[in-house]
Write a structure and sequence with these properties.
There is one protein chain. By secondary structure, the protein is of the alpha+beta class. The protein is built from 8 helices and 8 strands, in the order ααββαααααββββββα. The strands form 2 sheets. Strands 4-3-8-7-6-5 form a 6-stranded mixed β-sheet. Strands 1-2 form a two-stranded antiparallel ribbon. A hairpin with a 6-residue loop joins strand 3 (about 140-145) and strand 4 (about 155-160). Helix 3 (about 60-75) packs across helix 7 (about 125-135), helix 4 crosses helix 7 (about 125-135) and helix 6 (about 115-120) packs parallel to helix 7. The longest helix is centred in the N-terminal third of the chain and has 31 residues, at about 10-40.
Amino acid sequence: MSRFESVLERIPAWKQLKEEYSAVMNGQEIMQERIAELETESQGWIRVSGAQLEREFSREYLSYIANQAWLYWMKNPLIRRAVETKALYTFGMGFEIDGKHPAINELIQDFYDDTKNRQELTSQKALMEKERQLQSEGNMFLALFEDPPTGRIRARTIPFNEIVDIFTNPNDRKDNWWYKRLVNAGGGSKYIWYQDWEYKYKEGDSLPKGFNPTDIAYSDEAKTEPVRLMHVAVNRPEGSRYGVSEVYAALDWAKAYKEFLEN
């Protein structure tokens, strides 16, 4: 330290000025960090040119949102209470579905009473779990397996993070055709393709890039009945193929309130 600096250090006003300057610089660093966070977050909103999409969150960012929403549902009492309240309001009393025609009603009850379907989807407990999943992830993918001899349908959920892409009708982006799933198999990874439950391939229809017919998912070993996929999406922005977590809008508020209580 020079003699000049040592003299300045003895002046009270100089010490106060240094402290104020340090506080301003710290505040500037915090502001820069916040701006960087916003810039990083905004990069998740991308524009895709061409006939497919104009605007939507990137697939990676949607997974990040879903993981954050699930984490806050696990640990934040405000988020957890909101999710649980909606789930209880929707399915707390249970419900019944009946078909007017006896034959149709029999099919419906067979589906609902199937042991595996109750475990996965149709019981009150399963419906509550699916409601929580939809609120945190914004998307649910139900794989529908058909038993060829009986026509019986069984439903299973595919994890959101495994569906890496959705291929839509080139002339109608709201018309889903194919779903691309990434799974780990034999120490490596592979892609599996699923048809949308309402789509039936016609000769001349466009096929996704990288599509391989041998990678289509089938319900049976004879490969006569493909597995159909039903995509349930909530809070879906216009022009997007995916829904967005309903918890997402409250995450920043929950974080700020947590920091407020800590302070």
